[in-house]
Design goal:
- This protein is α+β, with helices and mostly antiparallel strands.
- The chain contains twelve helices and eight strands.
- The chain has a domain of 110 residues: Roll (Chitinase A, domain 3).
- The strands form three sheets. Strands 5-4-7-6 form a four-stranded antiparallel β-sheet, sandwiched between helices.
- β6 and β7 form a beta hairpin.
- α5 packs across α7 and α8 packs across α12.
Amino acid sequence: MRARGTVGFILLAIAAGFVAGETVFRSAVCRDLFGRAFGRGQLAALVNRHAIYEDDIEREIAAARYLSGRNAEIASREAITKRLVTDENLRQVSTHEAVPAAELQREVDLLRYQLGDDNSWRKRLDQAGISQDRLRRSLGENLRGRRWVERFAADHPAIDEETLRKYYDQHVAAFVLPQRFRASHIFLAAPPGTSPEIVEAKQQLINSLADRLRGGEEFDSLVWEASEDEATKPSGGDLSYFCEQRMPADFFKAVSQMKVAEAPKVIRTILGFHLVRLTETKPPRQMSFEEAQPAILAHLQNAARRPAVENLSAKWSGSSALRRPWFWN
């Protein structure tokens, strides 16, 4: 009998421990105390069980200044807090969204390409205090969130062809394709911050590659040998068609002055060195209704979905989980 009573007491104690643990975990007051005790600062918001502290807001401010420039204006602390609350709500509801590995890798590669060579990539991540694993997780969360929002806002009024055609007629000037170019390049990264020795070495290398092309070597083979643009290597350095809005200004200006079939030209941009071959140009032209129809449909569908997404964002960012002053402030 005594043994049975002892077991019962132990079970009761364990249950009480779980209840106390749950109470502490859900309590904004306790989480605020924990944040102060462990150097995270005051509690800014509590989204379900996820706490957002002053430390998180400071990190967001630092990241915004790093990306925008030290003296650039950034959002207020209140706006940043509300965005973090919205992001966390979205992260929680989209946890089970499936994201294909290839799609995630494509997002990583797009970022990787913008930062040049491996050394620049690692250096920028270190400066931002982000590991490659953490970046991959963040990109995955972002993709899951986007997919969830797309499903959430999927219901929209049917848009018939008459509505699409009316929009086209009213905005016909917006559907003019600008002048486009198609080019291939061999790329050697030398972004800002690259040491002068490396810049000089890469300039010498790009010039030697240009000499080898003039000597009769194949462009595609030199792409595979030397280009640091992993995204375009499989297609022989092909950048496909692009207009002024899709390329850095210095690159586009240089390419627009080239002629098809002329010898490849060395171009220096803010990203590094390019050995460019212009392969085709297309003059500006008016798009037909049939060509513009998919873009018009997507635009009108997004406009129809926007109120639902804005209402959801307002609901989340105005969450009652935003902290209130505690008695010890």
